[in-house]
Specification:
By secondary structure, this protein is α+β, with helices and mostly antiparallel strands. It has helices at about 35-40, 50-60, 70-90, and strands at about 1-10, 15-25, 30. A three-stranded antiparallel β-sheet has the order 1-2-3.
Length: about 100
Amino acid sequence: VCACLRIDRGADGRIVDCAIAFGGVAAIPLRLRAVEALLVGRMWDTSLDDQVRAAIAEALTPIDDLPRSAAYRRYVATALWTRFAAEARDGATAARIRAYG
């Protein structure tokens, strides 16, 4: 699973644009436009994290195969969002981040 995540905020802290895409969770890489729409216009704070993780998990339909299960792929995708948010929004260092779970 890989992620490409970008959040642009305005001067007031609201999200003005974003791009959220994942690879390794479907036949082709997916851009999650519904999740992007959930974020645009909102303040980027920790209150959004649960909604974003749920929206990501709902939007993905990963394959369930021998190397990794669909549940594992969803878990990794939501954990990647959590790490991104902690680093980009909160300024947490990798040593302080605990994956969601």
